[in-house]
Specification:
The complex is a heterodimer. Chain A is built from 8 helices and 11 strands. Chain A has helices spanning about 5-10, 20-30, 40-55, 60-70, 75-95, 110-115, 220-225, 285-300; strands at about 135-145, 150-155, 160-165, 175-180, 195-200, 205-210, 210-220, 230-235, 235-245, 250-255, 270-280. The longest helix of chain A is centred in the N-terminal third of the chain and has 17 residues, at about 40-55. Chain A is elongated and about 100 Å long. Residues about 85-105 and about 120-130 of chain A have low confidence and may be disordered. Chain B has a single domain (about 5-90), classed as Orthogonal Bundle (Multidrug-efflux Transporter Regulator, Chain: A, Domain 2). Helices cover about 60% and strands about 10% of the residues of chain B. Chain B has helices spanning about 10-15, 20-30, 50-60, 65-90, and strands at about 5-10, 35, 40-45. The radius of gyration of chain B is 18 Å and the shape is elongated. The chains are: A alpha+beta, B alpha+beta. The interface of A and B includes residues 131, 171 and 207 of A.
Chain lengths: ~300, ~100
């Protein structure tokens, strides 16, 4: 358990006045308040630290204790016992006029709990925290193949199993809110929500742009020149394609409705764009060379 | 009138220890929608998430109601920009590798 320098967190000097501490706290809280930084874990962590630092430094008794024991907080127990009675009196009376912020803050650090006990050091963390539970953020790693079809999946979030339907076509980076799957509310308030970020990895030969898929198909030089029929892969099968005579390298064909499912639109699909990559033979036989030479002589343009 | 998803504003005021005038001002500025039924004001349950945020911004950060409007507009813009950024990053993958 590491020592936490609350002065450093509030960016104030050890000699800072009560007003300076209040000012510093308010300034930083405006910067890191969870309502102004939704889904920002780092801001949430900073905000927790700020609240904790303020709980200690804005309360004369706690500040005194922190200043006296500071880095030697482990020896503070004796002091704690001696001043417990007095502190209880102080806790009930010092909060008027300057309440802590709430947001979705959660627990205190081990350092704080060791020095000041498990609960709030100075009686309450603002009004709103008593109602809605903390929101949870989670990341779900899936393969592109997994999101081609709508399916159900059981996730374990904070030790709790949640059965979810993952809609087909969900995008990489997309965040969905699952209401009521966050932490329990306080004092009978509603539960928090779960924000699930999808991290979708693509190990296929298809590139994805929203619902459209892109792929390259190799085409031998003869089919490119003469035309013909080839079989190409789509995401969930194969299709026969007619290649026009004189097809150029990089020519794109669009296969309507053969792309990726459209999110929450059952039965709707994007398109598949196939680019032809014409393969020029690198090794040819003597006979082929002769024929190519002959062909080249026939070409006048 | 279906009252199922409506909450009596008076209950909200008591619960969050907020003056009724705060909500009427939010209503005037268009941040929430108050419905009057039998002379009593109500808010929809689905507005509560935003209402809680507005109360926190007002009480905890001393943001006035016009400021809340600005904050909400900017947060909405940030959200749109984040979505654009994700879409752009996903599109960039087309040209990588």
């Amino acid at each position: 358990m590491a020592f936490i320098d609350y002065y450093k967190i509030l960016e104030v000097d050890k000699k800072a006045t009560e007003a300076e501490i209040k000012k510093a706290y308010r300034k930083l809280a405006r910067k890191y308040h969870p309502d102004l930084n939704p889904n920002d874990k780092e801001a949430e962590r900073k905000f927790k630290e700020l609240n904790e630092a303020n709980e200690v430094l804005s309360n004369a008794e706690n500040r005194k204790k922190f200043d006296q024991h500071g880095e030697n907080w482990q020896h503070a127990e004796q002091y704690e016992k001696a001043s417990q009675q007095q502190q209880q009196y102080q806790r009930g009376s010092q909060r008027e006029g300057f309440e802590g912020f709430s947001g979705n803050t959660g627990d205190y650090s081990d350092f704080f709990e060791s020095m000041f006990g498990g609960g709030s050091a100075s009686g309450g963390r603002g009004r709103a925290s008593a109602f809605k539970g903390q929101d949870f953020n989670a990341e779900l790693h899936l393969d592109l193949n997994d999101v081609f079809t709508t399916h159900k999946r059981t996730l374990t979030i904070n030790g709790k199993n949640i059965r979810l339907t993952i809609p087909a076509g969900v995008e990489n980076g997309q965040i969905i809110k699952i209401s009521g799957q966050g932490a329990e509310g306080a004092n009978g308030g509603p539960k928090g929500d779960l924000y699930l970020t999808f991290n979708i990895e693509n190990h296929t030969n298809f590139k994805v742009d929203k619902n459209n898929l892109y792929s390259n198909v190799d085409l031998d030089v003869f089919t490119a020149i003469l035309g013909g029929e080839i079989t190409a892969n789509t995401f969930d099968g194969k299709v026969k394609l007619t290649v026009k005579p004189g097809t150029q390298n990089g020519t794109k064909v669009k296969l309507k409705g053969k792309g990726f499912p459209v999110y929450k639109k059952e039965g709707e699909f994007g398109d598949l764009y196939i680019s032809f990559q014409i393969l020029i033979p690198t090794e040819i036989t003597e006979k082929e060379k002769e024929l190519f030479t002959e062909l080249s002589k026939l070409r006048t343009i | 009138m279906n009252m199922e998803n409506l909450i009596l504003l008076k209950t909200v005021c008591t619960h969050y220890k907020v003056e009724l005038s705060f909500f009427t001002h939010l209503n005037e500025i268009g941040l929430i929608e108050i419905q009057i039924i039998e002379q009593s004001p109500y808010v929809r349950e689905d507005q509560m998430y935003d209402i809680e945020r507005m109360i926190r911004l007002h009480h905890e950060l001393d943001v006035n109601i016009e400021g809340i409007d600005v904050v909400f507009n900017l947060l909405e813009k940030i959200d749109d920009l984040k979505k654009d950024l994700i879409a752009t990053k996903n599109r960039l993958r087309l040209y990588e590798n």
